[in-house]
Amino acid sequence: MKQTHKSENYRLNALADGELDTIESEALIQEIRSNPELQRELCDIHMLKDMVKSAYPADNQPVSGTYGKSRYLGAIAASFLILAIGFFVGNRSASPSLEDSFALSMINATPGKVVLHIGESDNEKFEHALARAEQLLVDYGQKNMQVDIVTSAGGIDLLRNNTSLHIEKVSTMKKNYESLAFVACNNTLARLKKEGKPTDLLAEAQVAPSAVQYVVKRLQQGWSYVAI
Question: What CATH number was assigned to the domain covering residues 102-227?
């Protein structure tokens, strides 16, 4: 299968992450319906999200406003495409499927490698994620444990200078634990910038092009995944 153009891949992940507004979502969905490569890419992304959700049930997260509607449109698009093109029984590339990659990561998960994902602006969840990460690093030791705290959508507020209530805690933890990483989704940052909102991050944060892509890579590398 040919590689999807970088800008298209960016938009697909933004749609999956719920980072496009309603107009952008509807326009992209129309484009996807006539492009088989984009159809397969979007289906792969949503399959991963569904499999992760099934394996690690997260708290129920209410959605509202533009963000909620864009996520809803993305889900409709994926469902429509799966039914329309017979995705699960159609032709697939010879490369390993996402189902296989996910199953392999669950069976052969590398001990001591954990991704904690936060997708909601909730200080209680922020505190829980930080406490859980620290507990893992203390209990198993830095040499035996690596933890990535990945933030997307509202979860990125943990790492934004003007919204985080945990600046000192994040700084202290990063200094104390070299094997701890804080990751922000660039799709979310792009949306915030478009809306005219501050996007300055804490010095300890690193940026990934997409939270979905980042999690995919970690799963393929055998990391365990936990949704906070």
Answer: 3.40.1260.10
